[in-house]
Structures are given as structure tokens and as C-alpha cells.
Amino acid sequence: MKIYISVDMEGITGLVDHTHVDSSKLNYERGRKIMTQEANYVITKAFETGCEEVIVNDSHSKMNNLLIEDLHPETQLITGDVKPFSMVQGLNDSFNGAMFVGYHARASMSGVMSHSMIFGVRHMWINDVQIGELGFNAYVAGYFGVPVIMVAGDDGAAREAEALIPNITTAVVKESISRSAAISLTPLKAGELLAKKTEEAIQNIDNMKPLTPPKNPILRIEFANYGQAEWANLMPGTEIEVGTTIVRFQAKDILEAYQAMLVMTELAMRTTFS
């Protein structure tokens, strides 16, 4: 069995604000150590439960957060950027299942550090389905016929996963009090929970189905202000919906939609206050 693990940071145990996830801030080094430890609980249990190959993709910010020297020695780590498929780089039809660890709720929803790729995104849709990072990544996995079998993170991420993916196993390591406060398990207790849920997810893999994306999907992204929409609209093939800050793109498949989202959000980040 071959398992793919995408590891984000905002949904990791005990991390509640930007000082934990921004490499320039005082709590970041603590945060990345807990992130690495948390990933390791999942990786180790995956191997113990019969997986022959585990590939991990560092999926936060510059994507060089996980401490490779502390990971299970049989792990293969995808690290650094720029990656053509960002949080799902390396995912293909050779995998039996995917797990998302350290995930968070989408933008405009309740949850610790909830967002969708960048702070300037309010909402994203594939056709009429509202999604965040979790949903978009699950659609890419589904394109390759790979089911997402577990999501670990805060309670907001768990609710989002359960609404999108029938029978998904979720591991809630912290519950949101606000966007920058939570009641959290300790890393040791979170590790015990993650190991248990990883084993459950792998044992349940035959009952899981991929989240199949629509053919020729329409991607729509609503930005926080019009300047961000204007920047995103510089990408060929996009249009701004009149009277809104929503930028629309007709894609040939979910992979093209995903890369369009990456380009549009990168452009939008160039917007300044004045």
C-alpha cells in the first residue's frame, strides 16, 4: 500500500496564530517542531499498519517547514517551492489513499486561522460547490482516483471534511474558540489520537471513494477587494463578474483549475493598500 500525506501548519496541535506559522515570528521554530512530530505520528502508524511507501508533501507557506532529519527514515519528503501543484505536488494514480494533516477551515468560516490560500480570498467555488484548500486538494486526488481517507486539524477542518467526503476519518486536535484561540490537546495526547485515527483510516480504505471532480469545471474566486480581482484578471482566460470581486475561469479539467487558482492568488497578493 502506498499513502500520500499533505501536511499544512495552521491545523497543527497548539498552533493558534501567525506567530506559530510565520517563519519570521518568535513561535515559529516551536511550531515546526510540533508540526514535524505530528506528521511523524501519522507516518509511523501508516508504516506499522502495513504501508510499504509513504510520501509526504510539506504544504505550508514556503513548504520547507518539516524537519527531515526527524522524520521516519523510510519517509520520502517533497519540500520547497515553487511546486506546480503546491499542496498536492506528487499526487498521482499510484497511491491507494491520501491523508491531510494540519488542515484548517476555508476562508470566511469559523476555525483557527481559517483561510483559503491567501488572506485576500473570501470564497472559492468549483461550479456550485464552495471549497477551500481541503476541498480543492481532495478534488485533485479524486481526479487521479485517489480517496482522501483522513483529515486531521481543528474542528472546523473536520466539519468541512465530513460535509464533503462520506465516511471520512477525522482527527480533531484542537477546537476553535476564535480565529486565533483554541482549546488544544497536548502534543502527546494528539499523537495518540492521530495514531489511532491513522490506523482506523487505513483499515477503512476499501469503504472510501474518491471525490470525483466535475469535467470542464468553472473556477470562481471572490476576493476581498477590487484591486485583487484586477490583478487576478491579468491571467488570460479570466473575467471579472460585473458588480462583484469574483473572478471566473473556465478550465478544461480540475488540474488546470488548480493551477489557475495558484496563479490568480499569487497575482492578487501584489495588491497594495494604496
UniProtKB/TrEMBL annotation:
<keyword id="KW-0031">Aminopeptidase</keyword>
<dbReference type="InterPro" id="IPR007035">
    <property type="entry name" value="Peptidase_M55"/>
</dbReference>
<dbReference type="InterPro" id="IPR027476">
    <property type="entry name" value="DppA_N"/>
</dbReference>
<dbReference type="GO" id="GO:0004177">
    <property type="term" value="F:aminopeptidase activity"/>
</dbReference>
<dbReference type="Pfam" id="PF04951">
    <property type="entry name" value="Peptidase_M55"/>
</dbReference>
<keyword id="KW-0378">Hydrolase</keyword>
<keyword id="KW-0645">Protease</keyword>
<protein>
    <submittedName>
        <fullName>D-amino peptidase</fullName>
        <ecNumber>3.4.11.-</ecNumber>
    </submittedName>
</protein>
<dbReference type="InterPro" id="IPR036177">
    <property type="entry name" value="Peptidase_M55_sf"/>
</dbReference>
